[in-house]
Amino acid sequence: MYRNQKIVVVMPAYNAAKTLRQTYDEVIEQGVVDRIILVDDRSRDETAALARTLPGVLVHVHEQNTGYGGNQKTCYRLALAEGADIVIMLHPDYQYTPKLIPAMASIIANELHPCVLGSRILGGYSLKGGMPVWKYVANRFLTLVENILLGAKLSEYHTGYRAFSRKILEQVLWEQNSDDFVFDNQMLAQILWHGHTIAEVSCPTKYFPEASSINLRRSIRYGFGCLSVGLTYRLAKWGFVQSKLFPPPPERLAK
């Protein structure tokens, strides 16, 4: 715990057997995590079997592959059911360092910001860590456009390292989101829609064969999905469209 708040780390897992143990060990070393929840999305390797041997890990295996967003939905449902006050989403592929968990948790526990992102862009760690140049360029372009459409100033929207307060998970309609990779983008837009602030911490990142990554075709699909989210957000703000992801505020409904 940190400041009497229960910290739960959730790991959406798919074929992570080679890196799970290393990620787990480093999470435990931080000394603040009360529970680890791993949701296996029908991996083809021994991810689930290995996770069941790790002390303190709650393992849930999907009966069928639900996709990255669908996996996260299960993660957050289980975390809330466990009584989490702070939920930190960390991929078990060891691409992001668990050493930032105490810092991310403290920002939320001290009520500075209800959401914290581990940014690969701050500090220039993305290219140093091996991010392909084409992914870096796409990241920067999408982030620029999204900042304009969402009215924010984030360094990136595409990191898989995120921390949330319980309040956000209970308020944001993330169950309405996609089961695919654009889930991440939709959730950040929803958090901003509700007027919450988002903090970022600089996160060293590693790119290596075992680290999860999507191919070019799915990256292009993801990119167009992000642009669609941003455009829908802006049009909903102006009152031109209605979206289940961005419901009108209560005062507008009352009218």
Quick rundown:
With 255 residues, this protein is of the alpha/beta class.
DSSP summary: helix tally: 10
Question: Beta-strand percentage?
Answer: 5-15%
The shape is: globular
Cα gyration radius (Å)? 18 Å
Write down the secondary-structure element order.
Answer: EHEHEHEHEHHEHHEHH
Oligomer: single chain
Structural class: alpha/beta
- Percent helix, as a range, is 40-55%
Number of domains: 1
End-to-end gap? 43 Å
What is the CATH C-level name? Alpha Beta
Strands of the widest sheet, in order across it, are 3-2-1-4-6-5-7
Largest sheet report: 7 strands, mixed
Q: Which topology does CATH recognise?
A: Spore Coat Polysaccharide Biosynthesis Protein SpsA, Chain A
**Gross CATH architecture:** Alpha-Beta Complex
Q: Uncertain regions: pLDDT < 50 for 5+ in a row?
A: 251-255
What is the CATH homologous superfamily assignment?
Spore Coat Polysaccharide Biosynthesis Protein SpsA, Chain A
Number of strands: 7
Overview of the molecule:
- This protein is an alpha/beta fold and 255 residues long.
- It has a single domain, classed as Spore Coat Polysaccharide Biosynthesis Protein SpsA, Chain A (Alpha-Beta Complex).
- It has ten helices and seven strands.
- The chain has helices spanning 17-29, 47-51, 68-81, 101-109, 125-128, 133-150, 166-171, 183-193, 216-237, 250-254; strands at residues 7-13, 35-40, 57-61, 86-89, 115-119, 162-165, 198-202.
- It has a seven-stranded mixed sheet with strand order 3-2-1-4-6-5-7, sandwiched between helices.
- Strand 1 (7-13), helix 1 (17-29) and strand 2 (35-40) form a beta-alpha-beta unit.
- Helix 6 (133-150) packs parallel to helix 9 and helix 8 packs parallel to helix 9.
- It is globular, with a radius of gyration of 18 Å.
- Residues 251-255 have low confidence and may be disordered.
